[in-house]
Specification:
This protein is α/β, with parallel strands linked by helices. The protein contains nine helices and 17 strands. The protein folds into two domains: about 190 residues, HUPs (Rossmann fold, 3-Layer(aba) Sandwich), CATH 3.40.50.620; about 130 residues, Rossmann fold (3-Layer(aba) Sandwich). α3 crosses α4 and α8 packs across α9. The radius of gyration is 23 Å and the shape is elongated. It starts with 9 loop residues before the first strand and ends with a helix. The relative contact order is 0.11.
């Protein structure tokens, strides 16, 4: 734990792999920029790795004022011991007031390790971050300009706001896709600071010879149209109808957690609180009841079309257009109408009639 530094910077951990930045830190920078501006402080990124300095300008173009670059042979591949030591040293030296990580497999490993070493708090899987005030219910002391760490709790049934007035830095991991990716500004100028890691004597428990990462089967975040199915689809074979509709729309196929757990579709296609957060131009929800965990991942879609046999399904509460009916009857009619030149909503109206 470091002493609370009210003028400290806002940091984003700039996750990279093999010299390539993922979209996650770039998404976090858009929110980080907002937090730093509210606090009237600097937005910085912590960039760790081997030969990663060329990535610093991209971080600056997405809103960074500073990039702390830590390069070392032992940071070439992610290992908890080396990365956590480098991050703890950076935090101890520069005393940021906020540090944000992506809730990726790497971030979910690194952030709690750093929090434990620094003896500070950490809120996992946040869906929003804000700056606000908090009054201690016991001492009645008011704390201003705290990081409000917002996340679903109790299975998504409530939204909790968590604050950390005393044990700084304030740290959080944020789910992928919940922050909007800002447009880069190539003309932005920023400061690139080279930092020497103190890894002498550090023994890494694993020697990594080679690594292979399986690419995701689908990029749901980039899809303009998504056809998603839930438990109500009934079987993996029935999901074939959703693939047929997606093919005529040029859409990606998604699924709720229930559909994934039942084996109807692969986890790469999962939309929702424990899957991918999406904002397509059109989201077609088929046999999805609309549990809050799923809605959290798709409710910002520009248009939502739902097909469900249950007229009281919660999904209809956030839908722009709904069809109460059996999807095995509705979807073939929609496909026929779309192939005949109808738009999606017009096709749904035809099927509804």
């Amino acid at each position: 734990m470091i002493e609370a530094n009210k003028s400290g910077e806002v940091w984003v951990f700039a996750e990279q792999e093999s010299g390539n930045l993922s979209e996650v830190p770039l998404e976090l920078l858009s929110k980080g920029r907002e937090l730093a501006d509210t606090l009237k402080t600097t937005l910085a990124a912590a960039l760790l790795g081997k030969n990663v300095k060329p990535l610093a300008q991209k971080l600056i173009s997405h809103g960074c004022d500073k990039v702390y670059v830590v390069e070392d042979e032992r940071l070439g591949h992610y290992q908890t011991a080396s990365y956590s030591k480098a991050m703890c040293d950076l935090i101890t030296q520069h005393k940021p007031q906020v540090v944000v990580y992506g809730a990726t497999p790497l971030g979910r490993d690194l952030a709690p390790t750093v929090a434990s070493a620094m003896k500070c708090g950490l809120t996992a899987d946040c869906t929003d971050l804000q700056i606000g005030s908090h009054t201690d219910p016991v001492t009645k002391q008011e704390h201003n300009n705290l990081l409000l760490q917002i996340r679903p709790a109790f299975g998504g049934n409530i939204i909790a706001t968590i604050v950390n007035p005393h044990r700084w830095p304030q740290m959080a991991t944020v789910r992928e896709g919940v922050m909007r990716l800002s447009e880069p500004d190539a003309s932005r100028k920023g400061q690139i600071i080279d930092c020497k890691p103190n890894l002498n004597g550090l023994v890494l428990p694993v020697e990594l010879h080679d690594s292979h990462r399986r690419p995701k089967k689908v990029n749901l975040k980039a899809a303009r149209i998504i056809v998603a199915g839930g438990a109500g689809v009934g079987s993996k074979d029935n999901f074939r109808l959703l693939w047929d509709l997606a093919n005529v729309l040029g859409a990606a196929v998604g699924g709720s957690r229930a559909a994934v757990d039942l084996g109807y579709i692969d986890h790469d296609h999962q939309v929702g609180q424990t899957g991918t957060t999406v904002r397509p131009a059109l989201y077609v929800a088929v046999g999805i009841s609309g549990a809050v965990q799923h809605r959290a991942g798709m409710q910002e879609s520009a248009k939502i079309l739902s097909i469900n046999t249950d007229k009281d399904a919660p999904i209809f509460g956030i839908s722009h257009f709904g069809v109460v009916g059996d999807f095995t009857d509705v979807i073939p009619k929609m496909i026929k109408a779309i192939r005949g030149g109808a738009g999606v909503i017009q096709a749904a109206q035809t099927a509804k009639a």
